[in-house]
């Protein structure tokens, strides 16, 4: 199968990453390249996700493509007991490309095997969300001008947060990264990722406190600490106000440091940070459109 | 900020009204002016509203624009606890224009302050619904050829009906209007609007009965009397069949009189009125497409 | 009224069928004929139906048309108590064509009477689903090269299955068909259809067993046997595994025999059939796009 699916960030080589970055920059300069004229893209969201869906649908629209699909499984055949296999087989008869979000881990890979057209994973449960990683990378490259020698701080839920795992894997392909993990005990970076880093000889540091240690950071990647992740509610109460980024904490950070967040945020970044020029999460959302235009181009060999 | 938001009908001057009327007439002659080619409009309906949404989406489509968005908040990030601030900041990174419907009064003004692209209010709770007023005005101008010296009858729920309030404010900018208010005691026109009319020296009359007094009307603007507006259910029972327009009541009305209704109606206009040439509410809905094409053009300086 | 509505399969003559087949073949060769440029199609799904909706929306998109509408009645004005009459009157002010799915039998015919633009019935309850029949016919013609002298087996729920009823009516217009009905006692072909066939002198045979009798078939049309159709649950338990098509049953069938199914399937076709070249149901879904492009063209006189 030489279909260019994007299911996991590891489906792409370092060369693919760089090619996507180049194309994203090109789309940023001219977002309305109508390469999708005459094409139909199926946007299948088996669970709601406004941000990702609107970002993809904006990308498709700017490229002149047409969209069919659904924004939650309630209005899909799933409610009639149809299997994912049959839904995907059917939709791949209609569309030139499938963008899929599904609550089940592994569903995207399965869909890609069944589909006759390329599948782009827009998130499959706690598993993978590779287009988020590529827009994160594009945001890092735009602000830091390089992927090499970066000091990346990851904060919050590092145990269940799929975005930090994928970003870690992707950035490990580049020269000499340093990772700093800041998380409560229950939400630490899983052992498998630490083993991976050790094997590659990549330096990383773990912290429980979220204080002025971020002064060394090039990128501070914030994530949400969700109550339902804690087995003991008291544990959550103890840490819930610890992993909040406040404007006062940015005083001694590097001039070129930038704050990323996959959004939506709840309270983990105080709103007084929004005015700070180091706050980059809304521009990051904007970059998502260009990164997704690049990913779609790549999947369909449009450039 | 010189963004051309449309949040309240009072955001527009008399000159703006007339310009919108001119443009609407131009769009009615040729609805498919593809001025939105290459543009993406976010259609954010935090509560369902078929009529308004389909009317806007038809206008955008006829102008060659693309639409992203949602038709109720269930499939939006709101369910993940995202603030309106963040949703709007995000969406204004994607789209060239935001059309927003939201149940909360004041939400549209707030969205306009947060957004980097123009915001058009498609209804914010009981507060404002300015595009409805502009299509009402276009319908009046088309049928009466003038905004001056008109005798406007407003019938039904004049207390909570935002459409009659906005229409009253807008028409008061023109020469010598007369208003007649026909409403049950609990649903009378609020004092503040009557004070406004008195200060401007505009004549108005109040009636409890809905009989043949409409013989003087140029426009009869019907609205729904909803049960849930009454504190005492018995009050509703007493009046529920009083404010219903029937075909027999139209016999002695002016030849050029026209009946408007923002729709949806429940039973306040008997269906035998539909065949009468004075029934104008479905053409009024049609006018909504042209008025909204004009409003979008105005917001984005397309003409 | 010379609007070209499609409400029932009997609205079309034999000549219409053949014209649709010709046009469908033409669209299959070139699906992206942009005959709908500048046109807006209302896609009104008062109940969810992914397959039919996506198929129609793909057809409209490939033809360059724009879509407005809703995918379930929850986000429509229906929830505000608006009548179907008013909804259709309103929408026909906006759109050039209405595609409608509604749970109520007869609703499509009523909508066509009220609408000023053509209405295509995308299913009205248990009543009619004519576009499914036309895509079934196109699938039969593509695989058998003729509508004459065909031996059609219909299997499963022949009592409530609207697709088999409509297909029977349509194929009866052609030369010398033979029908074989395979169904449990409670779900047999209704008497009225058998009377119709007898009056036209068309041969048909009824079977309770689903075994190797399909060796004579040109087409095996499978349908779902639903538990809720049985008054006695024990009856369902007795037959539920009887009307399942398995790959082993295909050994002695004609080389050119093809299996159709309107989809979604639950378990009535074993998945091992999918690999068999006689399995045609996914291509059948694909044919639906071309058939619907033809139907839309016909409704709007585009060719």
From TrEMBL, chains A, B, C:
Carbamoyl phosphate binds at residues 51-52, 101, 129, 132, 263-264. One of its GO terms (molecular function) is amino acid binding. GO terms for biological process: 'de novo' pyrimidine nucleobase biosynthetic process; 'de novo' UMP biosynthetic process; amino acid metabolic process. This is Aspartate carbamoyltransferase. The keyword Aminoacyl-tRNA synthetase does not apply. L-aspartate binds at residues 80, 162, 224. Heterododecamer (2C3:3R2) of six catalytic PyrB chains organized as two trimers (C3), and six regulatory PyrI chains organized as three dimers (R2). Keywords: Pyrimidine biosynthesis, Transferase. Gene3D superfamilies: Aspartate/ornithine carbamoyltransferase. Pathway: Pyrimidine metabolism; UMP biosynthesis via de novo pathway; (S)-dihydroorotate from bicarbonate: step 2/3. Catalyzes the condensation of carbamoyl phosphate and aspartate to form carbamoyl aspartate and inorganic phosphate, the committed step in the de novo pyrimidine nucleotide biosynthesis pathway. Residues 4-141 form the Aspartate/ornithine carbamoyltransferase carbamoyl-P binding domain. The keyword Transferase applies. It catalyses: carbamoyl phosphate + L-aspartate = N-carbamoyl-L-aspartate + phosphate + H(+). Residues 149-297 form the Aspartate/ornithine carbamoyltransferase Asp/Orn-binding domain. It comes from the Bacteria. GO terms for cellular component: cytosol.
């Amino acid at each position: 199968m030489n279909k260019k699916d994007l299911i996991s960030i590891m489906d792409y080589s370092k060369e693919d990453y760089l090619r996507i970055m180049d194309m994203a920059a090109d789309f940023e300069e001219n977002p309305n390249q109508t390469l999708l004229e005459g094409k139909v893209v199926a946007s299948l969201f088996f669970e709601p996700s406004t941000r990702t869906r609107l970002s993809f649908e904006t990308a498709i629209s700017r490229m002149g493509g047409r969209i069919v699909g659904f924004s939650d499984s309630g209005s899909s055949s799933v409610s009639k007991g149809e299997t994912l296999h049959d839904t995907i087989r059917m939709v791949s008869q209609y569309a030139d490309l499938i963008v899929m979000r599904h609550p089940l881990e592994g569903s995207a890979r399965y869909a890609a095997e069944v589909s006759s057209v390329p599948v782009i994973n827009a998130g499959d449960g706690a598993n993978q969300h590779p287009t988020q990683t590529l827009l994160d990378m594009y945001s890092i490259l735009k602000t830091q001008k390089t992927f090499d020698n970066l000091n990346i701080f990851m904060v919050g839920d590092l145990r269940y947060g799929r975005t930090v795992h994928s970003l870690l894997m992707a950035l490990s392909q580049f020269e000499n990264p340093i990772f700093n993990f800041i998380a409560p005990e229950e939400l630490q970076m899983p052992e498998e990722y630490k083993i991976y880093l050790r094997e590659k000889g990549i330096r990383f540091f773990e912290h429980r406190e979220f204080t002025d240690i971020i002064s060394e950071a090039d990128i501070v990647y914030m994530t949400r600490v969700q109550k339902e992740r804690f087995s003991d509610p008291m544990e959550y109460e103890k840490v819930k106000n610890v992993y909040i980024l406040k404007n006062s904490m940015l005083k001694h950070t590097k001039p070129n440091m930038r704050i990323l967040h996959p959004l939506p945020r709840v309270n983990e970044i105080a709103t007084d940070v929004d005015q700070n020029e180091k706050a980059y999460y809304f521009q990051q959302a904007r970059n998502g459109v260009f990164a997704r235009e690049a990913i779609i181009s790549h999947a369909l060999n449009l450039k």
